[in-house]
Structures are given as structure tokens and as C-alpha cells.
TrEMBL record:
It comes from the Bacteria. Its cofactor is pyridoxal 5'-phosphate. Residues 87-343 form the Tryptophan synthase beta chain-like PALP domain. It comes from Sphingomonas sanxanigenens DSM 19645 = NX02. This is Threonine synthase. Belongs to the threonine synthase family. It holds the Pfam family Thr_synth_N. Pathway: Amino-acid biosynthesis; L-threonine biosynthesis; L-threonine from L-aspartate: step 5/5. It is an enzyme of class 4 (lyase). GO terms for molecular function: pyridoxal phosphate binding; threonine synthase activity. InterPro entries: Ser/Thr_deHydtase_PyrdxlP-BS, Thr_synth_N, Thr_synth_N_sf, Thr_synthase-like, Threonine_Synthase, TrpB-like_PALP, TrpB-like_PALP_sf.
Length: 468
């Protein structure tokens, strides 16, 4: 398996190299040269397998020769052994057709753990064979930071610098990052939005002088290995609800388009996906792009769903590239135009291709709260606000989907991470699981910096370890 950049001019890499690289050198995102394809019999054979065995079979074509099957199995066993539920990502039924796929049973209570627990082990495995020190630089709207920090804290040959928007993540999200006091962990609160933080991370990857000194890598969903790991739970849920004999629809709360793009990958691999419902909050660039072709940024509005308070969805580029006949030079020109003007119109081919699989919905605070109350009153489920946005979108589009098709909403975080929002909507203040421990009595450590690239770059350069 080889990986190519969406912008066409970076060298093709194997799985090991693409995992360590993160962002492509031409500013694009890596994507497989061709999608592996499973037959109906191969998908049917996943029924009854453990999550680890499902992961091995789904990810093996992407890993190629970088890892043997036994080695991949051992890494998956270690990664998912830290989850509190033996099913890793269990399904919960809400009514006759709506289901939740619970993705929050990992150590930091969010779906990011599913990929990042494995990614941390992949980094360690690949670095053990190299005389290289890795500098991870990431931006987080809430959950990626804590999951990534948990996955790499204390690991040899790795430093992690995580940027989060000051005051725009929940207190639980912040503390999960800032109370991890391992010497290789560095938290930076940016006086700005997530988009400001994400733009600075991309600028550091594009800085040749900086990348010449430090071996940069990414833990955001721009890293292909992270998306690959997320493909697994679509297959795991799908076969339990009747695939390949029955199609499944998925509703995905999303901001950066990574989680829902993993569903697109599963569909390209042969999983019968009836619909992928993209659920946004009022920061609705993805809804506008999919419904009208207008991919243009607005002002970020802080909401009760901070992980979705995003106006630039990095992974959308992967979809546009795949739908646009994989023409790297055309994609580069399209994205360069967007980066200059902050506005872009999708081509007819991109719009028509997306319409075959995707639907979208913009969910405001009232609709989110109604979904939270419905889940509690009718199904006894306490949802976090992001999951509630996904469920509201699922219900919005339910009448357009064959009633025989089950609709699975991805439950992306534990409700205890967003206690205030849940209490406002339901009157119930959820607790945190015992496995989180004494989060609110631990010391915090982070620095607050202005949203100034030069200031942030200098701060990181003073503390990062050169690549060799």
C-alpha cells in the first residue's frame, strides 16, 4: 500500500512513513493510492469477531508490509485492552430503528481514544527502529488533545505540543490535558479559536526551516493512521446490524470531517452504507458545502459543542480530492484559492459525487436540547451535546431513508465531559466514571500564548528536541 498527497507533488510513502509524517510536504493530506475492496463474503466473515480481530482484518490492507499480522494484532490488543467495555465500541438501541454506537469507553472518554491509543503505539514501534526524535504538534477543539496526550505521555523519543483555544473547551477536557505532567507533554492555550490554532499547526508543517530542525508529526485527523483506525468501528457496527445483507445509515457529529470521512472509506471498501448524515452545529460550513456547494468560512460561534466549533474542516479536502478524479494539481489550486479567500465553490463533480452518499443538517441549541431530553425520557440514555447533535440530525433525515435501514448515531463522548450543558438540557448532572480518578484535585500545567505564529513557534523551538 502506497499513499499519495491530495495536492499531487509530495512523494508517495508507505504506511510507516505516512504515519510518522502526518501532513504531506506539499501541504496536502495523504490518502491511499487505491481503496482496498472487501467482498460480501469477507464482510460477512467479520460477524462474531472481537473488536481486535475486526481491526486486524480491516486495517491489514492499509498497513501493507509495514507490520506483520501478528504484530498488528498485538498492538491492537494492547491499545483496546485499556477500554472499559469488552466490546470496545458497543451498540445501544434507542428505539425500533435508532441506535447509538458508543465510542467513549477509552481512557479519556471520547471517540478519539479509539484511534489515538493505537497511534501512540505505532509511533513507538516505528521510532524504535530509527535514530529520530519525533515532535508532535497538534491543535484540539477539546478531545483530540487529551486522547493524544494520554497515548504518548512518557513515551521515549516523543515530545507533544498541544494547542487548545483558551476558555473554549470544557473544564473536564482542559484538565484531562493539563493535569498530565509527564516531561514530554506541553500544553499551550491559544488566545483565539480552534481555527487559529489549527492554522498555526499547518503553518509549522509548511515551514521548511522548522521542519528541517524537528521531525514533525501529527495526531489530528490529518494523520492517515488515525482515520484508518476509525474505519474499523463502522464495519464492527455494520455487521452486527445485518451487513452485508442489509444497508446501514450513520449520523456523525463532526467539525473536522475526519470521523465521517472514515465512514466514507468504509463505504469505498464495500460496506453497504445507505447514507452518511453529517451533523453540524451552528458553525455549519460542512452543511453549507454539502447542501449548496458553498464552502466559505464565517466567524466561529462558541457553543455547548466545542469540538464542533470549527469553520475550516481539514479532512474535507480528502473527500473533494477523491470525488474530483484524484487530480492533485486541480486540488492544490482549489485549496490555494480557498486559503487565500476563505471561500470556495465545489465543482459539479464534487457536489454530485457527495450527494450520492451524504446528507447534512445544521442543528441549533434548541434541537440539540430536545434530542437530549428525548433520549433520556424515551430510552434512558444521557447523551453528551455532540452526540445529541448527531441524533437530532439522524431524526431530521429519518423519513428520507428506507424504514428497514437502521440509523446509527455515533456517540462521540461521555456525557460527564460536558456536565453543564447536559444539566441545562435535562436537569441531570452526569458524573465522571471512577476510572478518570481525581481529575479536579490534580495540579494543572499549561502556558497561555497569543494567537501569534512567531511567538508559538519560538516557544516550541526552545523546548523541542531536534530530530537527530
Amino acid at each position: 500500500m502506497r499513499y499519495i498527497s491530495t495536492r499531487g507533488s509530495a512523494p508517495a510513502l508507505d504506511f510507516e512513513a505516512v504515519t510518522l509524517a502526518g501532513l504531506a510536504s506539499d501541504g496536502g493530506l495523504y490518502i491511499p493510492e487505491a481503496w482496498p475492496r472487501f467482498s460480501a463474503d469477507e464482510i460477512a466473515a467479520l460477524a462474531g469477531l472481537s473488536y481486535v480481530e475486526t481491526a486486524v482484518r480491516v486495517m491489514a490492507p492499509f498497513v501493507g508490509d509495514a507490520l506483520g499480522e501478528d504484530e498488528l494484532r498485538a498492538l491492537c490488543t494492547q491499545a483496546y485492552g485499556r477500554f472499559s467495555h469488552d466490546a470496545v465500541t458497543p451498540l445501544v438501541q434507542l428505539d425500533h430503528r435508532h441506535w447509538l454506537l458508543e465510542l467513549f469507553h477509552g481512557p479519556t472518554l471520547a471517540f478519539k481514544d479509539v484511534a489515538l491509543q493505537l497511534l501512540g503505539l505505532l509511533f513507538e514501534r516505528f521510532l524504535s527502529q530509527r535514530d529520530t526524535h519525533l515532535t508532535i504538534v497538534g491543535a484540539t477543539s477539546g478531545d483530540t488533545g487529551s486522547a493524544a496526550i494520554d497515548a504518548v505521555a512518557g513515551r521515549a523519543k516523543i515530545d507533544i505540543f498541544m494547542l487548545h483555544p483558551a476558555g473554549r473547551v470544557s473544564d473536564v477536557q482542559r484538565r484531562q490535558m493539563t493535569t498530565m505532567l509527564a516531561p514530554n507533554v506541553h500544553n499551550i492555550a491559544i488566545e483565539g479559536s480552534f481555527d487559529d490554532a489549527q492554522a498555526m499547526v499547518k503553518a509549522l508543517f509548511a515551514d521548511r526551516e522548522f521542519t528541517g530542525r524537528f521531525a514533525l508529526s501529527a495526531v489530528n485527523s490529518i494523520n492517515w493512521a488515525r482515520l484508518m483506525a476509525q474505519v474499523v468501528y463502522y464495519f464492527y457496527a455494520g455487521v452486527r446490524l445485518g451487513a452485508p445483507g442489509k444497508a446501514i445509515a450513520f449520523a456523525v457529529p463532526t467539525g473536522n470531517f475526519g470521523d465521517v470521512f472514515a465512514g466514507y472509506v468504509a463505504a469505498q471498501m464495500g460496506l453497504p452504507v445507505e447514507r452518511l448524515i453529517v451533523a453540524t452545529n451552528v458553525n455549519d460550513i460542512l452543511h453549507r458545502a454539502l447542501s449548496t456547494g458553498d464552502y466559505s468560512t464565517g466567524q466561529v460561534v462558541p457553543t455547548a459543542t466545542p469540538s464542533m466549533d470549527i469553520q475550516v474542516s481539514s479532512n474535507f479536502e480528502r473527500l473533494l480530492f477523491d470525488l474530483g478524479a484524484r487530480e492533485g494539481s486541480a486540488m492544490a489550486a482549489q485549496m490555494q484559492g480557498f486559503e487565500a479567500s476563505r471561500a470556495m465553490k465545489l465543482t459539479n463533480a464534487q457536489r454530485e459525487g457527495a450527494a450520492k452518499l451524504f446528507a447534512s443538517a445544521r442543528i441549533d441549541a434548541d434541537a440539540m436540547s430536545l434530542a437530549m431530553r428525548w433520549a433520556n425520557e424515551r430510552a434512558g440514555q444521557i447523551l453528551d451535546p455532540h452526540t445529541a447533535v448527531g441524533l437530532a440530525a439522524a431524526m431530521h433525515h429519518a423519513d428520507e431513508i428506507d424504514p428497514a435501514v437502521p440509523i446509527v448515531t455515533l456517540a462521540t463522548a461521555h456525557a460527564g465531559k460536558f456536565r453543564d450543558a447536559v444539566e441545562r438540557a435535562t436537569g441531570i448532572r452526569p458524573g465522571l466514571p471512577a476510572r478518570v480518578g481525581s481529575l479536579f484535585s490534580r495540579e494543572e500545567r499549561f502556558v497561555t500564548l497569543p494567537a501569534d505564529l512567531n511567538v508559538v513557534k519560538a516557544w516550541i523551538a526552545e523546548r523541542a528536541t531536534p530530530s537527530a
